[in-house]
Design a protein that fits this description.
6 helices, single chain, mainly alpha
């Protein structure tokens, strides 16, 4: 008998689940950001190797932020999907605290985000909250749709989004788009995940 990592109870959106799971998600996000910063600062840019590592970190973090909330709530219906979105939101708030308390005072970022907002960091925080909630929401929808067809393993739910994101980046590169590879990867993943969620909703209706 194969083991399953999905919770036995479905559609868990209680306060404890959201708070604990969101805190774990925020910690994972912080770890991914720190790893990204280490790569950006210490890995030499030779033959696109650093950009490739950064893109892999972004892709892995996007998968975790999108699909772990839906697994933690065992999303099957609207309640579990909403719980996943709430976990995504709380995860961004937990990371924001880590960012404000540790990363920014020590000037961890090699780029100047604040210059865009006239010296303030508050321009991007609402965007960060919305993005984290959106990814978890879309991931919850895809997770619920996969569960309706069979076992909602992480490979089955995240696999199409990862493959689609990679293909979209390749097409963008062939078309001459030359943004930073991590940016293209993040955008490609978000677009593909959104399309998968919309298709899942269309099939259900």
């Amino acid at each position: 008998m194969s083991a399953s990592f999905a919770p036995t109870a479905t559609d868990r959106s209680d306060f404890r689940t959201v708070m604990l799971s969101g805190t774990k998600l925020g910690a994972l996000t912080a770890a991914a950001v720190v790893l990204f910063l280490l790569v950006a600062r210490f890995v030499p840019e030779t033959g696109g190797g650093r950009g490739g590592l950064e893109a892999l970190i972004v892709l892995a973090a996007a998968v975790l932020a999108s699909f772990l909330p839906g697994r933690w709530t065992a999303a099957r219906h609207a309640e579990g999907i909403a719980g996943a979105a709430a976990i995504g939101l709380w995860g961004t708030i937990v990371f924001m605290a880590f960012d404000v308390v540790l990363l920014r005072p020590f000037k961890a970022y090699p780029w100047t985000w604040d210059a865009i907002g006239g010296g303030s960091s508050w321009w991007y925080l609402p965007i960060w909250w919305m993005l984290g909630t959106f990814l978890a929401w879309m991931g919850g929808i895809v997770t619920a749709a996969q569960a309706a067809r069979g076992e909602a393993t992480l490979l089955r739910t995240a696999g199409p989004a990862v493959v689609g994101a990679v293909l979209l980046v390749i097409v963008a590169r062939l078309a001459g788009l030359r943004l930073a590879l991590p940016v293209e990867t993040a955008a490609g993943f978000t677009i593909v995940l959104t399309v998968l969620a919309v298709v899942a909703l269309a099939r259900k209706s």
